[in-house]
Design a protein that fits this description.
about 25% helix; mainly alpha; about 325 residues; 6 helices; 7 strands
Length: about 325
């Protein structure tokens, strides 16, 4: 029989990694298992694949937009930069100004080979390793394959915090610690996501310079916010209101207030609060009380004796006793 045989076109399916995780087109790595991905021309959209990296490319291109290698073919590649060859979409013009179009997230221009930069505003955060966009649920960065949470940069501090929670007899409530740029904090809408300012870690010249003791105190403080938001019904009880007050009142605490998270001893100032920062707002009051409770391993006798030496008010006793009672309740 004469004529050319046409290759059957496979119907397009949602791209998935071999582990089963759903992927966005052209992610180099799986965010679940960190497996490297190869985006081949399975659906005959361009009819060509790069001989160097195996990813789908256009015959009109001069360079592979994924690995940057020269794939120019005389008489096939376009004589001028195109906006969007068949199989690809136009997302932006080349950063180098060659006049050609590129599709998100091509790292190289297919017409001049220049490196491209992309904004990842659609993501919830940035990877602490490559600073590309990642979401809070991702275990691995889809761009570099590294730990998207940044927990691999603070294993010592996290081990210490987990051990303190176990010794304090506080059950894990499913929180997730993430290193992110900006101010540390917890969003009440997502109480289990604890964001830690990555400037404490990223950019340090030597591992010995990382302030581990401060980092442990900071994580425990933010876990106090997460714990409170996770058990928000407790804030309506009479015992909680007598100890901490109304935690849902307007929050006007500024981020310029300095806090010594390395401190493990109760301050002598502010007789009705454990620290000066705790007096800023009832939520910060609880977070600081929680931090001291955890870092002191829930040793109530030791804490109560120290509060007597520091001449703290009765309300401070109430705070620790109510927290200890609630911890025992949820544990039982």
């Amino acid at each position: 029989m004469g004529g050319k045989r046409r290759r059957a076109i496979v119907p397009r399916l949602d791209p998935r990694c071999v582990c089963g995780e759903a992927l966005k087109p052209f992610w180099p790595f799986c965010p679940e298992c960190a497996r490297p991905q190869v985006w081949r021309d399975l659906y005959q959209e361009t009819g060509a694949e790069c001989a160097y990296c195996g990813w789908m490319v256009s015959d009109y291109s001069w360079y592979c937009p994924w690995c940057g290698e020269d794939i120019h073919e005389e008489g096939v590649s376009s004589d001028r930069p195109l906006k969007a060859p068949a199989g690809f979409r136009f997302s932006a013009k080349c950063d180098a100004g060659c006049g050609g179009g590129v599709q998100y997230p091509m790292p190289y221009c297919p017409w001049c080979g220049a490196e491209q930069t992309w904004g990842d505003e659609m993501f919830e955060g940035t990877c602490p390793h490559c600073e590309r966009g990642v979401d809070d649920w991702m275990d691995h960065c889809p761009w570099c394959g590294g730990d998207a949470t940044g927990q691999d940069l603070i294993p010592r501090a996290l081990r210490r915090v987990r051990r303190l929670l176990v010794v304090s007899r506080i059950r894990h409530w499913g929180f997730r610690v993430l290193l992110r740029p900006g101010v540390s904090g917890v969003d009440p809408k997502y109480p289990k996501v604890v964001e830690i300012d990555q400037s404490y870690i990223v950019g340090q010249r030597r591992r010995e310079e990382i302030p581990w003791s401060i980092l442990v105190g900071l994580i425990c403080h933010e876990l106090g916010h997460s714990f409170l938001y996770h058990h928000w019904r407790w804030t309506d009880s009479d015992a909680f209101l007598e100890a901490f007050g109304e935690v849902d009142k307007a929050y006007r605490v500024t981020d310029v207030n300095w806090v010594d998270f390395q401190r493990r001893r109760i301050t002598t100032t502010h007789p009705n609060h454990v620290t000066a920062y705790a007096s800023q707002h009832p939520q910060e009051d609880f977070a600081e009380t929680f931090r001291f409770y955890v870092t002191r391993r829930g040793r109530m006798r030791e804490l109560l004796a120290e509060m007597g030496q520091k001449r703290k008010g009765v309300v401070v006793y109430r705070k620790f006793l109510e927290l200890d009672r609630f911890v025992r309740t949820i544990r039982a």
